[in-house]
Specification:
CATH class of the largest domain: Mainly Alpha
Distance between the termini: 26 Å
Largest sheet: 2 strands, antiparallel
Strand order of the largest sheet: 1-2
Number of helices: 9
Helix content: 40-55%
Order of helices and strands: HHHHHEHHEHH
Strand content: under 5%
Radius of gyration: 21 Å
Bound molecules: heme C
CATH topology of the largest domain: Cytochrome Bc1 Complex, Chain D, domain 2
Number of domains: 2
Shape: globular
Structural class: mainly alpha
Length: about 200
């Protein structure tokens, strides 16, 4: 585990991190351990959630979404987007083929075809399989797909309907889903993007 050792050595060489780890994991002979480091990173990442109006809606506040956004959520669910984009992040926890009904590059116009997981696993079943991305802050994180081949969110939504679900979404459905996606944009606490002063 050379990389793990390098990370631990680097942390141990900082007096500030020694103190911070000793405070966070009291009573341990060596607080800067791999296990504690991964727990600390997990605790940090769990704070990176960006609360949105969608979360308020899920928590029971019916007025948190506009009617249009509710319609978009409805379209997102009824068309089957949620079979892959599910959970708190609307994705982020499974791998799926990109291009279930048709080769993805015909729609994305990707210049280079990336075979996805098959490149590393050498398993035919992984051909064009990619991680299903979470959709929080999706309105802000263009360009889309693994190769950034699509710049326009509505185009990405249309392509998803066509090649993942074999559905030609109407312009209105695409619009509604895009409007719903705006409700997934949250604020990030600036504290979490500041450089640490060591
Ligand atoms: C069968 C699984 C599946 C279904 C159903 C599905 N998606 Fe996806 N979605 C994916 C995968 C896999 C990717 C990643 C493709 C890539 O990285 O190239 C993706 C990517 C996306 C992206 C781009 C995310 C980014 O950060 O680049 C958007 C937006 C999206 N999906 C929206 C939708 C919408 C809207 C629907 C319903 C109309 C839908 N998806 C249905 C599997 C699915």
């Amino acid at each position: 585990m050379p990389n793990e050792e390098t990370a631990l050595e680097r942390l141990r060489s900082s007096e500030k991190y020694q103190k911070l780890f000793a405070t966070a994991f009291p009573g341990q002979a060596e607080p800067i351990s791999w296990e504690n480091l991964t727990s600390a990173i997990g605790a940090f990442e769990r704070m990176l959630v960006t609360p949105t109006r969608f979360d308020k809606f899920i928590a029971g506040d019916d007025d948190a979404l506009t009617n249009r956004e509710k319609q978009g959520l409805e379209d997102f669910i009824s068309n089957g987007c949620v079979t892959c984009h599910s959970g708190v992040a609307l994705g982020g926890h499974i791998f799926q083929k990109f291009g279930v009904y048709q080769d993805y590059w015909l729609e994305t116009k990707s210049e280079n075809v990336d075979e996805g997981r098959a490149t590393v696993s050498k398993d035919e079943a992984d051909l064009n399989v990619f991680k299903v991305p979470g959709l929080r802050n999706i309105s802000k994180t263009y360009p889309y797909f693994h190769d950034g081949s699509v710049r326009d969110l509505k185009e990405a939504i249309r392509i998803m309907g066509k090649i993942q679900l074999n559905r030609e979404l109407t312009e209105e459905q695409v619009e509604n889903i895009a409007v719903f996606f705006d409700a997934l944009t949250g604020e990030i606490d600036p504290k979490y993007t500041e450089n640490p002063h060591l």
